[in-house]
């Protein structure tokens, strides 16, 4: 079976043999990982019955063994013992932050987190920095007309500062096509936001302009 580029990057970032997919998309990711042999056990979890039914159908249609289906609000009902990788993809950055923050085990389980926010990636980056999650890898994905970021992180307990440039564009750079497109998309979004507040909040618009200029300089755009 094939994955779209977004989920394929998530799959490539997993490291261990037991993967938990929170908010699963039809069970595609765990099914792919089990089918490819990259992992031997996987959990497909979702807050809704219908997504789990779709995941069950995927497992059955693909003849997948080793997959578990768990109804769970975030990590709440997930047994994390032995889980090596936790994937939270396809949600907003704020919701991903809340899911991680709601369960103290996210700080003690030792698993890698692979996070793919659909929106508000800057909010997620700020949360990770403020709460001791080190981002060890970040890759941009251009899939169709949309630009995404996939982050791999691990809890260390050491908080750190991030610049405005990193908050908006992460560890991505312009050395590869998807990275350049991602950064350009962020600049486009920031310009739109700044233009919308030039009359009502000129100081904020100017601050965004300055951050955009820093991004262009640091990222070579």
Fold topology:
Elements: H1 5-13, E1 18-22, H2 28-36, E2 41-46, H3 49-62, E3 67-71, E4 85-92, H4 93-101, E5 112-119, H5 121-130, E6 133-143, E7 146-155, H6 164-169, H7 177-195, H8 202-219
Parallel strand pairs: 1-2, 1-4, 2-3, 4-5
Antiparallel strand pairs: 5-7, 6-7
Helix pairs in contact: 1-2, 4-5, 7-8
- Kindly state the percentage of residues in helix: 40-55%
Specify the biggest β-sheet: 7 strands, mixed
Annotated CATH architecture of the largest domain: 3-Layer(aba) Sandwich
* The CATH H-level homologous superfamily of the largest domain: Vaccinia Virus protein VP39
- Mean pLDDT, as a whole number? 97
| Element pattern in H and E | HEHEHEEHEHEEHHH
Our Rg estimate from Cα atoms comes to 18 Å
- Measured by DSSP, the beta-strand proportion falls in 15-25%
Q: Just give the CATH class of the largest domain.
A: Alpha Beta
Describe this structure in words.
The protein is of the alpha/beta class and 221 residues long. It folds into 2 domains: 5-162, Rossmann fold (3-Layer(aba) Sandwich), CATH 3.40.50; 173-221. Helix content is 43%, strand content 24%. It has 8 helices and 7 strands. The chain has helices at 5-13, 28-36, 49-62, 93-101, 121-130, 164-169, 177-195, 202-219; strands at 18-22, 41-46, 67-71, 85-92, 112-119, 133-143, 146-155. A 7-stranded mixed β-sheet has the order 3-2-1-4-5-7-6, sandwiched between helices. α1 packs across α2. It is globular, with a radius of gyration of 18 Å. The model has no long low-confidence stretch (mean pLDDT 97).
